[in-house]
Amino acid sequence: MRTVTVKGTGKLEFKPDLVTLGIMLRAKHQQYDETMALAERQLEALRAALERAGFARDDLKTADLRIEPEYRSEHDDKGNYRQIFVGYICLHSLNLAFDLEMDRLSAALSAMAESTSEPEFSVQFTVRDEEAAAAALLENAVRNAREKAELLCRASGVALGGVQSIQYHWDGHSFVSDTRCEMANGALPMLAASKRAAMDIAPEKIRVSDTVTIIWEIC
After folding, report:
1. Which of 90, 109, 126 is the last residue of a domain?
2. Which of 30, 47, 109, 191 is the most buried (most CB within 10 A)?
C-alpha cells in the first residue's frame, strides 16, 4: 500500500470578546489572625465597590489564596546574614471576567480605584468560548493538510484514498491578545478622580496556529 504523509498548518485570527482582570490583594500583619481579618476586609471592600459598579458578588472568582510567614534578612554583629521574622502575608489572587465593553472595563477599574483594598491588577483580552476556537483551528489545520495532499496527488497523477492515521498533540492554546493594559503605581487614585473617563481601546486580534499530520492511502 502506498501512502502520502502531509503536515497541515492551521492559522486563524479571533476577535477578543472577553475581558479578564487578574487582581491581587496583599494583606500584611505581625499576627496571623489579624492578617486574615485584614484580608477579609480587603476582599469585602473590593466586592462592595464592584457591586456599586454593577457587578455581581459572585463575578469575582478566587484563583489562589496563600498565607505565609514573611522574613527580612539582616547582618548580625559578625557580619553574617540572619532571617528576622516580620509577620504574615496573605496573597489573594482573583479573576473578574466580563464581556468586552469599554464602559464596563472603565467601571471596573474605577471601582478598584475607589475601594480601600489597594489592589494590583492586569488586564487581558481573550475569547469566551476557547473550546469552539480550538475546534475551528484544528478544522482549519485538517483542511490545509487535505488541500496539500490533493495538490500532491494531482501533480503526481495518483488518486487520494482514505485516511490511514492522524497525529495531533492536544496542547493547550493561549487565546490571549497581545494587547496589554498596565498602570503605573499610584495611577489608580488618578483614575478614581477622572469620574470614569471612557477608555477607547481596540485590542489586537488573537493570532494562533496549530499543526496536524495525516497519512493518506494513495491509489
Report:
1. 126
2. 109
Domain that holds residue 157: 1-15+129-177+204-219
- CATH number where 107 lies: 3.30.70.2970
Q: Which of 129, 115, 145, 157 is nearest to 10 (CA)?
A: 145
- 4-51 confidence digits (pLDDT tens): 999 999 999 999 999 999 999 999 999 999 999 999 999 999 999 999
Place of cell 484514498: 161
pTM above 0.90, yes or no: no
Residue 188 lies in a domain: no
- Among 108, 126, 144, the domain boundary falls at 126
142 part of a folded domain: yes
Give residue-wise pLDDT tens across range 136-151: 999 999 999 999 999 9
